[in-house]
Write a structure and sequence with these properties.
Strands 2, 4, 5, 6, 9, 10 and 11 form a 7-stranded mixed beta sheet that branches. The chain has a 4-stranded antiparallel beta sheet with strand order 1-3-8-7, with no helix packed on it. It has 129 residues and is mainly β.
């Protein structure tokens, strides 16, 4: 099993920045791709960003492209999401997810929550106008 714990959420003014972290523990050697998803009150969960094991491949939702950056440090078993130029519509609970390997496949399916096997509890991000 793999456990994921997010941190770094909080309240920030529009235009500000936050950096989310997701610490993985347990059978971390089994993890392949990782991703961030978010869910606002009354809305469906939506894809934010995903990254391959090596970090060489990424996907971003159009709504965050150019403002958010996903990265990972496999030596520290940690996933990051740097969020800049935050907008009120970015307000949501942000959750990280991990795909169980082994796998060498990378594709658009990494934008789907069904691809991921492990999920964190989430961290609240609130952007005030």
């Amino acid at each position: 099993q793999v456990q994921l714990v997010e941190s770094g959420g909080g309240l920030v003014q529009a235009g500000g920045s936050l950096r989310l972290s997701c610490a993985a523990s347990g059978r971390t050697f089994s993890i392949y791709a990782m991703g961030w998803f978010r869910q606002a009150p009354g809305k469906e969960r939506e894809f934010v960003a995903a990254i391959s094991w090596s970090g060489g491949n990424t996907y971003y939702a159009d709504s965050v492209k150019g403002r958010f950056t996903i990265s990972r440090d496999n030596a520290k078993n940690t996933l990051y999401l740097q969020m800049n130029s935050l907008k009120p519509e970015d307000t949501a609970v942000y959750s990280c997810a991990a795909e169980r390997g082994p796998s060498t496949a990378w594709g658009p399916f990494h934008q789907s929550p069904e691809t991921y096997d492990y999920w964190g509890q989430g961290t609240q991000v609130t952007v005030s106008s």
